[in-house]
Amino acid sequence: MTENAPRILIVEDEPKLASLLADYLRAAGYAPETLADGREVVPAVRARPPALILLDLMLPGKDGLDVCRELRSFSDVPVVMITARVEEIDRLLGLELGADDYICKPFSPREVVARVKAILRRAGRSGESTAAAGLVIDEAGYRATLDGQALELTPVEFRLLKTLAAGHGRVYTRDQLLDRLYDDHRVVTDRTVDSHVKNLRRKLEQVRPGQDLIRSIYGVGYKLEL
Predict the structure, then answer these.
(1) How far, in whole angstroms, is CA 170 from its chain's centroid?
(2) What share of the chain is helix, strand, coil (3-state, %, to 5)?
(3) How far apart are CA 212 and CA 187, in angstroms?
(4) Which of 47, 59, 78, 117 has its CA 20 to 30 A from that of 70?
(5) Does this model's pTM top 0.85?
């Protein structure tokens, strides 16, 4: 492991599971750190932001949903939720929380490492910038601005905006958007995509009040109109 290895924060109150994940991530070239109490997460991230957080849903002190919601108030660090509660998946991926991915228990540690690699690879993709009609997307910095104003986007919102902007004027179906947001072709509902679009649309409208920049095409999907 190199000195500059990406730091992965593991928030898990089962010591054996946290240790197992840390071992696998370390072997893959990452620098894992562990926390067991939900109340410790936000101060730790504010003090030293990690490259990615593996966040268990059920935690002492403060549960993972509340932690994720609080993180998203100030940080766009990728968050992968770990849960045994399948019924929570839509909530986990809904943009009111801003989780980037989820893993259901029981899982293979190798699967976790593969998910971490995929998310960090997306976050570090080509350093090109895309600009169109006042919108500038900086892929290397994972930042976007509209009319010179920074858009405070979660990683999933950023990928959604990048996809819509790359095919400016093109209509994307919900399935096509899901394929670009999630590499593993998981099964999620149309409502998840609609939730992502709703929150991205709201942030764009904060810069251009009264303008609906993401147009809904009835029965088809969405397109970006700047």
Answers:
(1) 24
(2) 40, 20, 40
(3) 29
(4) 117
(5) no
